[in-house]
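Running low. Got one?
___
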Amino acid sequence: MRPLERWRRLGLASLLLGLSACAHRPVTQTPITKTLIPALPAANAPTTVAIPTVVADHAARPPDDYANLWDRLRAGFVLQEVQEPAIDEQLQWFLHNPQFLQRTFYRARLYLYQVVSQLEARGMPTEFALLPVVESAYQPFAYSPSRAAGMWQFIPATGRRFGLKQDWWFDGRRDVLDSTRAALDYFQQLHAQFGDWLLAIAAYNIGEVAIQHAVDENRAAGLPTDFWHLKLPAETRAYVPELLALKRLIADPERYGIDLPPIPDQPYFAVVHVGTQIDLRVAAKLAGTSYHKLVELNPGFNRWATDPDGPHRLLVPADDAAQFAANLKSMPAEDQVHYLIHTVRPRETLTLLARHYGTTPAALIRLNGLHGWRLRAGETLRIPAASGSVERSVELAAARVDREGGGRSREFHGSAIYRVRRGDTLGAIARREHVPLALLARLNHLGRHDRIVAGQRLHVERVASRHRARIFHGRARLYASRHIPKIRHVHPVRRMTYRVRKGDTVYSIARQFQVSMQQLRHWNGLKHRRLIRTGQRLVLYVRPNRQEG
């Protein structure tokens, strides 16, 4: 398998987020020419500020004073240099794809100081700071078909094994601090098991059971048990050489005609403890930075705000940390998240309201000081609400959580999804599905007389199929008894416009938004063989959590 094959197969969502650099690597023998990678913006300088809520979450600086972070990284290299054709092959790919290095190191400038600091604090080889280049090209929102997430590419089970929180609000596999801590914990555990760093790296790729089996086989056959003599899958045989090729290139860039972009030996961010939930757009304004930058530094949050259960901290550009902490202190906690006021109607439940407003029952209970799950008609609830649009990468993360059931209540068992047919109206569907028209419209964020189109999906979920409604004179009435169909809101269908990008196809767009190609063609009057063009606007009817998903 070619180098970077494992993350080249990352899903379409990750490709849309900038992982297009993972193309097939052709190995050619062309002369090496001097390649200049443009200098990166200088990292922000201060590491601590005079506000007590700002902390430096890094190890103490080593006594040596390095000219830049690359020098500091090289000083910690300890893996033995070996001459293997597999390493040469990987090195050739990097030399012939400087644009990949440019994009990757541009992303890495945000996180590299923190990773190197943590490695030094543990006395580990600093070569491990290059492993996210192999795993994800330092893309914290990277996501693979095997459900591995983050720049260290943890699958859910391994993430939980190393204490990475994963719920509706937060995924520690993508969090910069938590995922780095977990990855280094894992490497140290693997090194303790195998006593060899290369075997530990291989085990991180394929699993310790597979490596132990290969070692046992060689030992039984009287063969060497080092990495280079083990019988392993092609992906793992390329994985370790790829890291060693990167180490060789970083160790002596002049020899290979590469000018590495200068990254200052300074922390890019500071850690600010916020104490409670905060809307990320509100936080960005307090810090005087962009919402996009704050999302880059805090990719673990699945939603528009931090997790109400923590972690109650944000990574903020170091130059902005003092301003953020000072402004945060002067802001009342209730202003850190925007709220809506909802008056409870009969038969509404916390689960229904949480799904309707994009939050969780636990958050509503905590926010409103409720003592249980029971609601009374007429009481008012404060509902947290997003203060603006959500970054596309966050929408993708939220869509995956929703699709996989993360954080969902188990109170409801069955679901009814109605696909609109030609000639249908909301009223006709309400009568056929035994649902009040007003409720059907409200649950799908539609007006009673809104137009619906063939192929559109309306969502109604029930507690159990035995529940039923009675119809009187064409009007549905729900009775407060155990036979009432309890209907909860899932996600409404929303009309959106998508501008076709270069390389898009009907298939790729349909897959991206989880609709069928037939639906996409029907909504836009596209003939079966008709091509779409860059810049063309297409209409889609999708659930909000499927936008860009």
Observations:
- The chain is about 40% helix and 10% strand.
- The two ends are 28 Å apart (CA to CA).
